[in-house]
Amino acid sequence: MSTLNGPFTGGPTLNDGATMPWLGIGVWQTKDGDEVVHAVKSALEVGYRSIDTAAAYKNEEGVGRGIRESGVSREELFITTKLWNGHQGYESALQAFEDSRRKLGLEVIDLYLIHWPVAGKYRESWKALIHLQKEGLVKSIGVSNFQIHHLKDIIEDTGVVPAVNQVEFHPLLTQRELLKYSREQGIQLEAWSPLMQGNLDLPLIQELAAKYGKTPAQIVLRWDIQQGVITIPKSVHANRIQENAGIFDFTLSDEDVKALEDLNQDSRFGPDPDNFNF
């Protein structure tokens, strides 16, 4: 695993040999058009090179426009999008990928994820992603919101281990068993909603922010990457996007990492992957 001290270059090497940045920008709930274009361009201007979108966010076209208008070369970027639940299944997944690729205006996607483990469909969807990777249309393939039993299903089915599993991950939901299993299998964990949808007013986080001279958000994002978890905070504000990147010039002590981990309550701000119905 590479250093945690480079702002935007470098990052963990995935199990397929690709390198993914530690920090990216998420665009969930960011409106298509000018809002997402501005967010993407602001992030790329600061130095971000990883952008995470999804078909369900309905802003892939704006993300593509932001990329083109930024002037940053495609080779420098790592673009993730996701297969939505209503498009799962083998043939429908292939078609949905084409739609995403067209909207983004990209020939090749760096990382394509199954957004949720839809019962009865995620196995066939995974086979479709394997096909896309073999065709060279996707560099890396993975999943999102998969529990250990979902991961075992697709690995036993195909022998192909996902490169990434993107899940809700933060100090109130530390996912210890999933993190342990992922490390054992060589699956890179990635945190969505790392900032607990803004619920950062926990006394310990406030104390650590004062101790390190950082914001509460920076404390939590640094905690993510010190555990080897990629993180993709979402923001539409240029100053916040820049602030979120200020996590590579300090290190949390082992004691403080453990103290944050001990905040765990298995509390979710998003849906439970075993009990959702979209």
TrEMBL record:
Keywords: NADP, Oxidoreductase. Signal peptide: none annotated. The keyword Oxidoreductase applies. Pfam families: Aldo_ket_red. Residues 23-264 form the NADP-dependent oxidoreductase domain. The active site is at Y57. GO terms for molecular function: oxidoreductase activity, acting on the CH-OH group of donors, NAD or NADP as acceptor. Substrate binds at H115. InterPro entries: AKR, AKR5G, Aldo/ket_reductase_CS, NAD(P)_OxRdtase_dom_sf, NADP_OxRdtase_dom. The record marks K82 as: Lowers pKa of active site Tyr. Belongs to the aldo/keto reductase family. This is Aldo/keto reductase. It comes from Paenibacillus agri.
